[in-house]
Amino acid sequence: MRALSYFLVLAGMLVGYYELLGPGPSPSELVADLEWWRSYGFAHSRDAFDALERLAAGGFPGALVPLGLFWLPPLAILVWGFKLFRSAVLRTLCTTCFFVLVSFVYYGYMADRVWRFFEWRSPAVAATVAATTAAGLFAPSLLRAALERSRVWTAFVMAMVFAGVFLLSTEVTGTNSDMRFNLSPWPVVTLFGLLLIGSALAAFHCAAGLGIWIAAQLGGTRGLVAAALVAGALMLALTLLIFRAPSVGTLLTLTSIGAAYALVRVRVGPESRDEAARAGLLVLAAGVFAFLTINLSNQAAAAYQTKARNDTAMQVLVALERFREERGAYPERLRHLVPDFFEEVPRPRMGLILDDDDEFTYTNLGDSYLLEFSSVTWVQCGYSPPYDVAKYSEDDFEDEDEEDFEERPQDPELTALLADHGLEGAWNCQDAPPKLW
Known about the structure:
The chain is mostly helical.
């Protein structure tokens, strides 16, 4: 009965926060019935909340007042859930809902433009990132819960997790033709939920697990010191894999957190050396599995991009040049390459599933063109042949910034590959999806 009461309160809070803090309709939209998924945004249309809105609009530190006010109830219900449940799955669910409620507050008050732009996708993406983050936090506990049932069940769960992460990493592109500016929010899950937050949490578990195991082997003060040093060293190495040229502050912060996390888990873990060693190996296994799953899936995504650019697109680029040589101009549409050059226009594959979004976008620019395709993690790969600068005078560029025309370096191997096919243009995407931090 208490569990039912808890989930009823939690569900009511999720709906209430959504309706209260969502961007809400514009005045002109109030005259019509809103779609079922649209929030009424009561906090933005009631005089009682004006003071909080002014504080939020003024930025920090004043914005901490409305944020803190609305974050307290989710925190309270999270504490209630942890006292009520011992199940790792239910605690993960409670934590997921807590993150969703917190994101509703932040995006309702501090970044309502994002919510308004992405419409129903914004809370859906927030919920997905919240779920992946909560699962990363409780990865060791979830692995232990699965092992308590059976090894077969554990193998099945791990296979499903790997499949889910792989599909998110390889199938989700950064563009969606149904949205303005051709921009999709779904790579937020991959970039931040997995590659940033997920990888960092997995690294913490790896560092802590190895530290716990070392402490169990050595025991006493020597074991604690060794645990902190080993955990910090491993966290340092993994941080260099996650971040591009991290600052000294980032390295010190994450290394310190990794060492501290290991010490905390040693202190609150089993006293028996054998049990502590097993606990350490379980935490380490959860971290290694999560880290490899996320980063191997990302490598697969990069491989799809490379194949689409270097193999599939290359066929189209060569055909476009041959078309121009034979007919004196580039085609108006890619379909004009059929049937003389292709039985059907090749399509760039992203992931295992070939869908309608996996296709080239072609723009004829007269004496040049732009060939693009949607890759993963918000990357839009584009190729264009070099302009014939002799056709233009300096007056054509006098209003442009010189930086816009600076030659951008390209991978020498990619340049050589293009040259092998008689092409002199350039791609705007490198061999792998970029790290954005």
